[in-house]
Amino acid sequence: MQSHTLNAPFPACIRRLFFTLLLSGAVTSVVAQELQPVSAESPTQGLPNVTVLGTGGTIAGTGANRTAMVGYKAATVAIDTLIASIPELNKVANIKTEQIFQVASESMTVDQWLKLAKRVNVLLAQPHVDGIVITHGTDTIEETAYFLDLTVKSHKPVVMVGAMRPSNALSADGPLNLYNAVLLAGSKEAIGKGVLVALNDQINAARDVTKTNTSTTDAFKSTELGVLGYVQGRKVYFYRQSTRKNTLDTEFDISNLAVLPRVDIVYGYADMDSAALDGQVAAGAKGIIHAGVGNGSVAAQMKVPLLAARKKGVIIVRASRVGQGIVARNGEASDDALDFVVADTLNAQKARVLLMLGLTRTTSPQEIQRMFYTY
Ligand code: DGL
């Protein structure tokens, strides 16, 4: 894991030119590395200290040309190169970078979630670290963000950021997203707000945000629950905050965890059968998120196999494939009689994150239901 301090003055116009060329692929990273500003020994007084952890994704991606908005390669550009390509950051924060992973986020693993959360907690425990930014692929940023929202043990800002266009694209969204994320992570306003996801000038809560478009730069929305605020004109604006417990206020402690219980998702659709469910239970799932149609409805043919899984000790959580709204207890299924849990407003992928952590504490459906109403 490399750590660099990037703040020394270096003619910005020269750096901008070289990093534009670098991101366009015209300049090899070797040349750019030599042009990296010499690490500043002393941080700029008065600026917050922000550590930026690179994990990969499109924000670090490269396309064959500037119009290659799809079919590019994610996770190719080093985090210190991305930071150095935005000289304006010199006036925003004293930045250290760490390349913790370099992956496309569809391949992010639970082991990597645990490693990332543990590293974040070590860094935030250091008094001189004021906030953290994590660059990440957008495909699974919402799951990683929620996992961190439940496991980070600090009220200091943790801001996750990605991009929908690769780093060398025409109108790449990554640089401004990253600039805004560093600004937000160094702000006092972001303290105590839980883990935040900041793209497209908007600030969303980790619990509520989801990817709503495969490719447009406005893909991240908290749908009906709404944004928390904006980063605009180098300023941070909050208008509300989550009502759910997060970070320091959660009961989850991953410091000594090496693995998490297996939880799978069964997607609901017309005329489904239990082949996927049976396979997941046979593979050792300790929990199943049933992403049912409508209000988490359970098809007649699924009731027996789900109950059989329950009787084997598997926790069943009724979520919905719809993506918005409350899945109400004892609504579309007799949860009390079936000993099921409901996901409240969490989508299936977020419910999976919470259930994995819940199962590290208890196997009581009643206790797990409390967690779904708390976080
Ligand atoms: N492969 C996808 C990922 O790393 C690209 C999407 C993105 O990062 O925007 O999540």
Automatic annotation (TrEMBL):
InterPro entries according to UniProt? AsnASE_II, Asp/glu_Ase-like_sf, Asparaginase/glutaminase-like, Asparaginase/glutaminase_AS1, Asparaginase/glutaminase_AS2, Asparaginase_C, L-asparaginase_C, L-asparaginase_N
- Show the NCBIfam families listed in the entry: asnASE_II (TIGR00520)
Name the UniProt key words of this record, in alphabetical order.
Hydrolase, Signal
Superkingdom of origin:
Bacteria
Protein name stated in the entry: L-asparaginase type II
GO biological process terms, alphabetically, are: asparagine metabolic process
Upper lineage: Bacteria, Pseudomonadati, Pseudomonadota, Betaproteobacteria, Burkholderiales
Q: What family does the entry list?
A: Belongs to the asparaginase 1 family.
Amino acids binding substrate: 105, 138-139
Annotated L-asparaginase N-terminal domain residues = 49-242
Span of the secretion signal? 1-32
| Molecular functions (GO terms) | asparaginase activity
What's one Pfam family here? Answer: Asparaginase
Domain Asparaginase/glutaminase C-terminal stretches: 262-372
Q: Where is the active site?
A: 58, 138
